[in-house]
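Encode chain A's predicted structure.
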Amino acid sequence: MKREISLMRLEDVDAVHAIEEMCFAIPWSRNSFYREVTENACARYLVLREDDVPVAYAGMWFVLDEAHVTNIAVRPDRRGLGYGEEITRALIQLAADSGMTWMTLECRRSNEVAKNLYHKLGFVDVGFRKRYYADNNEDALIMALEQLPEANPERDPRLARE
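Encoded structure for chain A:
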């Protein structure tokens, strides 16, 4: 089985949206992902593929020197295989390679699996947002990764080269 991680392409939008619908109570629309790929210059999304089929994705927005994670999801039938950690590590490296100096995200306070992964990767709890999630008014834990790995700007796929 061939596995690879690369930037999300326009042809990935339908598969990424399908994963989103499987994983979240209030999923983003297909059009939202389409716009992330085609219009949002601050957005970066990665897709993990098995034999060219998307099975996980992760996205972030760049705001000044901060990479803010928007979504990370693994297709339910592919969970427990380390894909969440693999794509999150790739997202962190892409943020570093792209010149970001730190990373933030929100996570449901009840999501122990995600919190454990983020803590394993070096994220620390920095606060919470009251009633952040609209489906059940659950609070969001705000987490930050204050030190990104060593950057290799040559690996930034959007680096302008002259």
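The beta strands are 3-7, 43-50, 53-63, 66-74, 102-108, 124-129, 140-145.
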